[in-house]
Design goal:
Chain B: The chain crosses the membrane at residues 16-37, 76-101, 113-133, 176-196, 270-290. The complex is a heterodimer of chains A (280) and B (302). Chain A contains 15 helices and no strands. Chain A is an all-alpha fold and 280 residues long. Chain A has two domains: 15-59, no CATH class; 65-241, MetI-like fold (Orthogonal Bundle), CATH 1.10.3720. Chain B is 74% helix and 1% strand. Classes of the chains: A mainly alpha (280), B mainly alpha (302). Chains A and B meet through α1, α4, α5, α6 and α10 of A and α1, α3, α4, α5 and α7 of B.
Chain lengths: 280, 302
């Protein structure tokens, strides 16, 4: 292998490290500021290493500005909504993807086309009518209301179908010869053999709900039913003079995603990369 | 092949297949198809959510109102400025960094994960962090002053209408650049190494290889990423919402989604908000169509 010119290497590394500083600095800022008293955060120049650990920021973050500890309930709400959504998304998407790839009933391709067409409908364009549907069903301020519109997504169906198209038919036929029921085939052959696709899809669904601000903003009117993004908005608007507590809230709200990220970074990355190999 | 023999067994299987698709079909009908037709229908009425008066059919009046409303055009402008100002730098920088990362041997994995890490944060958290950075006494001023050597200048990130727009773009850029880097790296990895080796034997340098091999073969990914990021930018909401809730002026960053939310939920004007939703839908539909059209004609053969 020919060694490339050192100057070029150096320029590349300058760019890469510069970008690294730009990207990491705000993250490190969040972490270090959450351990500082407010007076240190706005001190010029900024001290990146906190003097001692000011854990009262975290106490304030969890207790809230009125001491109601609603943070814990809101965190729980987010966990519930995100978990249920990623569970149902995986379940229904794989079932639908299986049906659309391995059976040949009439109208199958039309169904697939119809489901794909929904990918073109942005959530933001239907949130008002969706809100009216949920209101009519009497589901504002409920987990059902928060969850229902996201039970399954078209991209999940698409991904599962693409994944299963390459799955060999012989396994399925063999199971049929053995007298397995169609549902048992799905449960004990299809599901266990789609691991990477399931993991990717579960992460995408979980993260999109953890991040969801707009829909809970419409549906969750009481403090009890709010989710973490709403808590952060409220806390930020009310406590913007207490910078340390603000960053502590953000850090706490990010921990579940970071745990997931480090445990499953392989799938996170492949979840993003799915897009570049979408053809075929 | 499957059509020639339709034994009763096959029939039985296919009935199961239809059953499996039923939950999804029901879901998409109720939560996607019905709402979009409902939005279309509602956009033709004067309807207020809490009013007891029956909705009044007014034809296209909501649309003509919007198209002559300075506030709505401001939202279109805010969204267009945000989208253009975000996706062009995103595209160029992420492509450049992806090419650079693919060139290095050591530390590649670490850099990828580090660049990607902001994408793991939720958008609200990202906006909240930058809210503090843009504080008059915050890091943004310190950095900019250090680079421009203008000590003590406050760059008014929130009080100046240009700066507040720029601030929202910066948040979005920061959060998503790593995400697009990963997509580009996957695209670059799918280009056969033999092409580069052949080019090297022919005496072309790295720079030439980039223009002659990487960029042309990466075109489908470039098109995909640009339209994907465009569609994402058109839907931006969290950053703008958190900023305005925390005191930033609304006018310069009143993007369409925020306008829909405020019109429909705060002002209860469901008809007008629906008309706005339909306009947003049509704009995004156009870009999606563009994506399908361009990616289809862009099949690459090695």
């Amino acid at each position: 292998m020919k060694q490339s010119i050192p100057i070029q290497r150096i320029i590349i590394w300058i760019f890469l490290l510069g970008a690294l500083v730009f990207i990491m600095a705000p993250m490190i800022f969040m972490i270090s500021a959450s351990f500082m008293p407010a007076s240190d955060i706005v001190k010029m120049p900024y001290r990146w290493i906190p003097r001692g650990i000011h854990s009262e920021n975290f106490v304030k973050a969890v207790a809230g500005n009125d001491g109601t500890y609603i943070f814990i309930r809101n965190l729980l709400n987010s966990l519930i909504v995100a978990s249920v959504v990623s569970f149902t998304t995986v379940l229904i998407s794989s079932l639908t993807g299986y049906s659309l790839s391995k059976f040949s009933y009439r109208g199958r391709d039309l169904l697939f086309l119809m489901i794909m067409a929904t990918m073109m409908i942005p959530f933001e364009a239907i949130m008002i009518p969706l809100y009216m549907v949920v209101t009519k069903l009497g589901l504002q301020n409920s987990y059902q209301g928060l969850i229902l519109p996201f039970l399954v997504n078209a991209f999940g169906v698409f991904m599962m179908r693409q994944y299963l198209i390459t799955f060999p038919d012989e396994f399925i036929d063999a199971a049929r010869v053995d007298g397995m029921s169609e549902f048992a085939i799905y449960r004990s052959i299809i599901l266990p053999n789609t691991g990477p696709a399931i993991a990717t899809l579960a992460i995408l669904a979980f993260r999109s709900q953890w991040d969801n601000l707009l829909w809970p903003l419409l549906v969750a009117q009481t403090e009890q039913m709010k989710t973490i993004p709403l808590y952060i908005v409220k806390f930020t608007a009310e406590m913007h003079t207490d910078e340390g507590a603000m960053m502590a809230v953000n850090l706490l709200a990010s921990i579940p995603m970071f745990v997931l990220f480090f445990a499953l970074s392989k799938y996170f990355v492949s979840g993003a990369a799915v897009y570049s190999s979408r053809k075929g | 092949m499957s059509r020639q023999k339709k034994s009763s067994l096959k029939h039985h299987q296919d009935r199961w297949g239809m059953l499996f698709v039923l939950p999804a079909l029901l879901f998409f009908s109720l939560f996607n198809f019905y709402p979009i037709f409902n939005a279309l229908f509602t956009s033709l009425f004067r309807k207020k959510v809490l009013s007891l008066k029956p909705p009044m059919f007014i034809g296209l009046e909501n649309y003509t109102y919007l198209l002559t409303s300075a506030d709505f055009w401001n939202s279109i402008r805010a969204t267009a400025v945000f989208t253009l100002g975000t996706f062009v730098p995103l595209l160029i920088v992420s492509l450049l960094l992806a090419v650079f990362i693919s060139q290095v041997k050591r530390g590649r994995k670490f850099l990828q994960l580090a660049y990607y890490s902001p994408a793991v944060l939720s958008s609200v958290v990202a906006a909240a962090i930058w809210l503090l950075i843009f504080d008059p006494r915050g890091l943004a001023n310190q950095w900019v002053n250090a680079i421009l050597m203008t000590p003590g200048v406050d760059h008014n990130w929130f009080s100046n209408s240009c700066m507040v727009q720029f601030a929202t773009m910066l948040v979005y850029f920061w959060k998503y650049v790593g995400y697009f880097i990963i997509i580009f790296i996957a695209g670059i990895a799918s280009i056969p190494v033999t092409l580069y080796e052949a080019a090297r034997i022919d005496g072309s340098g790295n720079w030439q290889s980039f223009w002659k091999i990487t960029l042309p073969l990466l075109r489908p990914t470039v098109v995909l990423v640009s339209i994907m990021s465009m569609l994402q930018c058109l839907k931006t909401f969290s950053t703008q919402y958190l900023f305005t809730q925390s005191g930033a002026p609304q006018g310069p960053i009143n993007v369409i989604t925020m306008n829909i939310y405020n019109t429909g939920i705060r002002d209860h004007r469901i008809g007008r908000a629906s008309a706005m939703s339909i306009i947003l839908f049509v704009i995004m539909l156009f870009f999606t169509w563009l994506q399908f059209k361009t990616t289809k004609s862009d099949e690459v053969t090695y």
